[in-house]
Design a protein that fits this description.
This protein has 2 helices and 9 strands, in the order βββαββαββββ. By secondary structure, the chain is of the alpha+beta class.
Length: 148
C-alpha cells in the first residue's frame, strides 16, 4: 500500500466503521487501514449521501523516519502517524505531504497529515471511532478527568 501513498491520500481504519460500501475502491494494508482509491470528491459525496460526516481535525501532524529503504521508512512513518491519529480518537487520516530527502547522505522520509474522523451524524463522538478508545469524562463534583 505504501507505493500508492501520496499527498491527498486518505486512509480509513477498517472494522466496524466505516460501512464496507464506502471502501469498495480501496486497498487494505496489514495494519487494518485502507487507502481510498476513489477521487476525494467521489468519496466525500458517497459519505455525505449516506448521512455520514467526514470531520477534518485542525493541526497538522508530522513524522520523519531515516532509512536506506524508502518503502520501509514510509511504512514506519505511516505507523507513527496512525498511532498519533488513534490517540486523538480518530479513524481516518489524510496525507498532506510526502518528502524524500537526505541529510549528510543519509536518506529520510518526512510525512505530514491531518487526522480525519468518519462517523454517522453531525456531532463528533470518540465512541464512533474504529478502535476502542478509553472515554474521558469530567466529574462535575471534583472537576477531575477520569477514564471510564
Amino acid at each position: 500500500m505504501t507505493d500508492i501513498i501520496t499527498a491527498g491520500s486518505i486512509l480509513v481504519a477498517g472494522g466496524k466503521y466505516p460501512p464496507k460500501s464506502f471502501l469498495l475502491q480501496s486497498e487494505s494494508d496489514s495494519n487494518g487501514w485502507a487507502a481510498i482509491k476513489d477521487a476525494r470528491a467521489t468519496f466525500e459525496k458517497t459519505v455525505q449521501e449516506a448521512g455520514w460526516t467526514f470531520f477534518f481535525m485542525a493541526g497538522e501532524i508530522k513524522t520523519t523516519v531515516f532509512g536506506l529503504d524508502k518503502q520501509k521508512a514510509l511504512r514506519a512513518a505511516l505507523k507513527r502517524l496512525i498511532a498519533d491519529v488513534k490517540s486523538q480518537h480518530c479513524n481516518s487520516i489524510e496525507i498532506t505531504r510526502v518528502m524524500s530527502k537526505s541529510f549528510l547522505k543519509v536518506p529520510y522520509v518526512s510525512v505530514s497529515a491531518h487526522p480525519r474522523h468518519l462517523q454517522k451524524g453531525m456531532c463528533f463522538s470518540a465512541n464512533e471511532a474504529g478502535s476502542d478508545p478509553a472515554l474521558v469524562t469530567q466529574t462535575q463534583s471534583t472537576g477531575r478527568l477520569t477514564a471510564s
